[in-house]
Write a structure and sequence with these properties.
The complex is a heterodimer. Chain A is α/β, with parallel strands linked by helices. Chain A is 39% helix and 23% strand. Chain B has 16 helices and two strands. Chain B has helices at residues 3-28, 42-78, 82-85, 89-104, 114-152, 159-199, 202-207, 231-262, 265-280, 283-304, 314-339, 342-350, 355-384, 387-392, 410-418, 427-457; strands at 211-212, 227-228. The two termini of chain B are 61 Å apart. The chains are: A alpha/beta, B mainly alpha. Chain A binds chain B through residues 96, 98, 101, 103, 126-131, 133-134, 136, 138, 140-144, 152-153, 156-157, 190, 192, 203, 206-207, 210, and chain B through 264-265, 341, 343-354, 357, 361-362, 365-366, 459-462.
C-alpha cells in the first residue's frame, strides 16, 4: 500500500507504475512456496460430525481444491472464508455431493458423515442429501405455495403419513425458521411472492423439513439487505443447537458473529483452521492475516 | 425512364445526403467551431437528411401507384365518343375491361373497335407522360426536402429525436399491417358466411348431421338440393387432430425431457436439429407416406385381428400427422424446460429429490405455460392440416367414432369446395367461408381455454 501511494504521489508514470505494483504482488503470491500452503491451526476436532481427509476436486483439467483435510464439529457452526474463486463453495458442495450434477467434476479423497464415506459406491446420493441439507446463495423457493415449498421434501421422502402430520411438519419447520408468524395466514400464496429475506428463511425451513443432520449454507445472506441478514444470522445461531452448520461467507464480520470455527481457503488450499476468536484476533498464517486485515481479497 | 432507375437514383442521392448531412454536422462542431456542441451524434444528422431525401418521394410514388391507373382509365374513356360515355354501369365495366385487354396486348380474336384502339393508344401515351412526370416530381421533391433539412442542420437541432420518431412511426405501421390483415381476413370470411346463412339456416349448419354439399345447377338436373350439416366434418377434424395429439404430446414431451434433462450436450447438439427437420418435411411427403405406407400397414394389421379397415382411415392420417407435429411439442418444450433456472433443480436435488421427482414436481410445473404453448401450436397445425388428410383419410363425410373408417375434415372440404370454377352465389361455394369461420372460432375458443388453464395452474419462477 505504501509503495502504491508513493507511485500515486509521483504522478508522472502513474498508470504504468500502478500496474507494475499489482503485477509484482500477484507474482509474489504465486511464488508462495508449497510448504507455506500446508494447513496451519487445528483442522481436527474430537467430536466430529463430518470428517474430510485429502479431498481434491477437479473440474476437467482444472484443479479446484487441493488436498483439504478438515473436521466439522457436532452442533457447531464452521465458517469458510476466503477470496472469490478460492474453492470454498466448491468444497461446500462436496459435502452433500451437489458437485455430482456438474459435468466434468471429479472428487477424490475421503469425506465421512458419521463414519461412513459419502463417496462410497454403496452410498445413495438421495438419502445423503436429505441428511445434509443445503441453502443457496440466491433464495430459490420453488414456484409453488409457501406450504408446498416446505412440504415438498417431507412428501417425497414420505416423512408424513397423513395430511395432519404434514401440516405439523410444515408448521414446526416454519417456526424453527422464524417465519411462521409472518406467513401463517397465507400459506397458499406463492413462495416467490415473499421478500428476499423471507424467501431465504423459507428455503431454510424447506431444508429443515426433511430433518437433516448437517445444513450447508452457501453465502446465504449475500443477496439480502442488512436487516434480513441480521434475522438470518440470529436464526443460524438458534439452529446450531440442533444442527451442524457449515457456512460459506464473504462477510468476515458475519463469520465472526455466527461461527465457532473458521477455515480460511486460498486458491484451492485450506490455509488455516481454528476457533473463530483465535483466527480473527491472532492469525498464524501470513495469507490469513493479509486477508482478514483487508490487504487483499 | 423506369421506376427501378429512379429508385437507384434516389438511393444514390440518399447516401450522398447522409454523408453531406453528417459532414455538415461535423463541420458545425469540433475544435474549429469553438464551444458549440451537437445535440445528437453526427450520424443522426446524416440519417435524418437521408430519410427526408427518401421518404417524401416514396410517399408520392405510393400515392401515384394508388390512383394513377383509375385516373388514366378515366382520361382514356373521355376520348371515346359521347355515345359510348353514357352507357349503363355494366356496359361501361365491359368497355373498361376491353380497353384494359387492349392496353395489356391481349387482343381478342374479335375485330378491334378503332375507337377503343385510339383510347388505348391515348392511355399508353398518358402513361408514358405520367411516368416521366412522376420521375421528375420525385427527384425534385427529394432534392428540395433534402436541401431544406440540410440547411436547417444546426447544433441545437434534435436530430436523434426526429429520427427516433420516424423509426417509431414505421414500427407502428409494420405492426398495423399484421393487425389490419387479420381483421380483413376475419371480416371477409364473416361477410361471405353471412351470405351463406341467408340461404341456409344457421341451425342446419351447426347441428346438421349430414354433409353433402351438392347443388343442382339447373332445374331439370337430377341432383340433391344439398345438405350442409357441419357436424360430420367437424367430428372428422377433431378425431384426426385428437389422434395426432395423442401421438405427438407424449412422444414430444418425453423426448423434450430426455433432451433437456438426461441427454449429454453432445447428443443434444445432434438430436435436436434432426428432430426439427421433421417440421421441415413438406406435408405432401407425409401425405404419400401416410397413403402408401401407413394406411396399407394398418389395413393389413387390422385384418390380422379380423377388423375391417378401409384403405383410407382416420387412424393412418392421424398417426402420420402426429409424427409431423412432434417437433412443435418437443422443440418448444425443450426450450422452456431449459429456461427453468438451474437454481430450481439445485434446490430440489439438495432436498434429496431424485431426478424424476425433480422433473415431475418442479421442472414440468414451472415450464407448463411453454409446454401448453407448444401443444397449442401443434394442435392448430393439426386442425389446419389438409394434405395428409386428403391423401390418407379420404373425402367421404362419415359421422363415425371408428378411427378405422374414412373421414374428412373441415380444411379438406374447403379445398374441394373451392377448387376449380365456382359461382360465388351458390351455397355450395359459400359454405366454405362458413366452415372457415367455424374453424376460426373453434381454435380461438381452444386458445382462450388453454390460456385460462395456464394462468390458473402456472407456477411462476423468477
Amino acid at each position: 500500500m505504501e509503495s502504491m501511494s508513493a507511485v500515486l504521489k509521483s504522478g508522472g508514470a502513474l498508470f504504468s507504475g500502478a500496474e507494475g505494483v499489482i503485477q509484482a504482488q500477484v507474482r509474489q503470491e504465486d511464488k508462495t512456496p508449497r510448504e507455506d500452503r500446508l494447513t496451519v491451526g487445528l483442522p481436527f476436532v474430537d467430536d466430529a460430525r463430518m470428517t474430510c481427509r485429502g479431498v481434491s476436486v477437479f473440474y476437467g483439467e482444472k484443479h479446484a481444491i487441493n488436498n483439504v483435510s478438515i473436521d466439522v464439529g457436532r452442533n457447531q457452526v464452521l465458517a469458510m472464508i476466503g477470496p472469490s474463486g478460492c474453492g470454498k463453495s466448491t468444497f461446500l458442495r462436496c459435502l452433500n455431493r451437489m458437485n455430482d450434477t456438474v459435468e466434468g467434476c471429479r472428487v477424490v479423497g475421503d469425506i465421512q458423515l458419521d463414519n461412513l464415506n459419502i463417496y462410497d459406491r454403496s452410498v445413495d446420493v438421495v438419502p445423503l442429501r436429505a441428511q445434509v441439507g443445503m441453502v443457496f446463495q440466491k433464495p430459490n423457493p420453488f414456484p409453488k405455495s409457501i406450504y408446498d415449498n416446505v412440504a415438498y421434501g417431507p412428501k417425497i421422502h414420505g416423512l408424513a403419513s397423513s395430511r395432519a402430520e404434514l401440516d405439523e411438519v410444515v408448521e414446526s419447520s416454519l417456526k424453527k425458521a422464524g417465519l411462521w408468524n409472518e406467513v401463517s395466514d397465507r400459506l397458499d400464496q406463492p413462495g416467490t411472492g415473499l421478500s428476499g429475506g423471507q424467501q431465504q428463511r423459507l428455503c431454510i425451513a424447506r431444508a429443515i423439513a426433511v430433518r437433516p443432520e448437517v445444513i450447508l449454507m452457501d453465502e446465504p445472506c449475500s443477496a439480502l439487505d442488512p436487516i434480513a441478514t441480521a434475522t438470518v444470522e440470529d436464526l443460524i445461531s438458534e439452529l446450531q443447537e440442533h444442527y451442524t452448520i457449515v457456512i460459506v461467507t464473504h462477510n468476515m464480520q458475519q463469520a465472526a458473529r455466527v461461527s465457532q470455527r473458521t477455515a480460511y481457503f486460498h486458491l484451492g488450499d485450506l490455509i488455516e483452521v481454528g476457533s473463530t476468536d483465535r483466527i480473527f484476533t491472532n492469525p498464524r498464517h501470513r495469507l490469513t492475516e493479509d486477508y482478514i486485515t483487508g490487504r487483499f481479497g | 425512364m423506369y421506376p427501378s432507375f429512379f429508385l437507384l437514383l434516389l438511393l444514390t442521392i440518399a447516401s450522398l445526403a447522409y454523408m453531406q448531412g453528417k459532414r455538415r454536422a461535423f463541420s458545425l462542431t469540433g475544435l474549429a467551431a469553438g464551444s458549440s456542441r451537437l445535440h445528437s451524434r453526427p450520424g443522426y444528422y446524416g440519417l435524418l437528411t437521408a430519410l427526408w431525401c427518401v421518404l417524401p418521394p416514396l410517399l408520392i410514388f405510393v400515392f401515384w401507384l394508388a390512383i394513377s391507373d383509375s385516373l388514366l382509365i378515366a382520361m382514356a374513356m373521355k376520348t371515346l365518343p359521347t355515345s359510348l360515355q353514357n352507357l349503363s354501369l355494366d356496359q361501361t365495366d365491359l368497355l373498361v375491361n376491353n380497353l384494359r385487354n387492349l392496353i395489356a396486348g391481349h387482343v381478342a380474336a374479335r375485330d378491334i373497335d378503332p375507337v377503343l384502339e385510339k383510347a388505348a393508344e391515348q392511355y399508353i401515351g398518358l402513361q408514358h407522360i405520367s411516368q416521366m412526370a412522376l420521375g421528375v416530381v420525385m427527384l425534385v421533391t427529394a432534392l428540395f426536402s433534402t436541401f431544406s433539412v440540410y440547411r436547417r442542420i444546426c447544433p441545437e437541432m434534435r436530430a436523434r429525436n426526429h429520427v427516433e420518431r420516424i423509426v417509431q412511426i414505421s414500427l407502428v405501421l409494420c405492426s398495423t399491417i399484421a393487425i389490419l390483415t387479420t381483421i380483413g381476413i376475419v371480416l371477409s370470411v364473416l361477410f361471405e358466411s353471412i351470405r351463406f346463412f341467408q340461404q341456409v339456416p344457421l341451425t342446419d349448419f351447426l347441428f346438421g348431421l349430414k354433409w353433402s354439399p351438392q347443388m343442382a345447377m339447373r332445374a331439370d338436373q337430377a341432383g340433391s338440393s344439398g345438405s350442409f350439416g357441419a357436424i360430420p366434418v367437424l367430428a372428422g377434424t377433431f378425431m384426426i387432430s385428437g389422434i395426432a395429439l395423442a401421438v405427438a404430446v407424449p412422444i414430444g414431451l418425453m423426448s423434450a425431457i430426455y433432451l433437456s434433462e438426461y441427454a449429454s450436450s453432445r447428443v443434444r447438439a445432434w438430436a435436436k436439429p434432426i428432430m426439427e427437420i421433421l417440421a421441415g418435411v413438406p406435408t405432401v411427403v407425409y401425405g404419400f407416406f401416410a397413403a402408401l405406407v401407413v394406411a396399407p400397414f394398418i389395413r393389413e394389421s387390422g385384418e390380422l385381428f379380423a377388423l375391417s379397415v378401409s384403405s383410407e382411415s382416420a387412424l393412418a392420417a392421424g398417426l402420420v400427422m402426429g409424427v409431423m407435429i412432434i417437433p412443435f411439442v418437443s422443440s418448444l418444450s425443450d426450450d422452456v424446460i431449459n429456461a427453468v433456472p438451474q437454481a430450481m433443480r439445485d434446490g430440489s436435488y439438495a432436498l434429496g429429490a431424485t431426478r424424476s421427482e425433480t422433473i415431475l414436481r418442479v421442472i414440468v410445473p414451472a415450464a407448463l405455460p411453454g409446454i401448453v404453448g407448444g401443444v397449442l401450436l401443434a394442435a392448430s397445425r393439426a386442425i389446419g392440416e389438409t394434405m395428409i388428410v386428403v391423401m390418407a383419410a379420404g373425402l367421404s363425410a362419415n359421422l363415425t367414432a371408428n378411427p378405422l373408417q374414412a373421414v374428412t375434415t373441415v380444411t379438406v372440404q374447403i379445398v374441394t369446395l373451392l377448387v376449380g370454377d365456382q359461382e360465388f352465389d351458390s351455397p355450395k361455394t359459400l359454405v366454405a367461408f362458413a366452415l372457415g369461420l367455424l374453424l376460426f372460432i373453434i381454435t380461438l375458443i381452444l386458445n382462450v381455454i388453454a390460456l385460462y388453464v395456464v394462468r390458473r395452474y402456472r407456477e411462476e419462477y423468477e
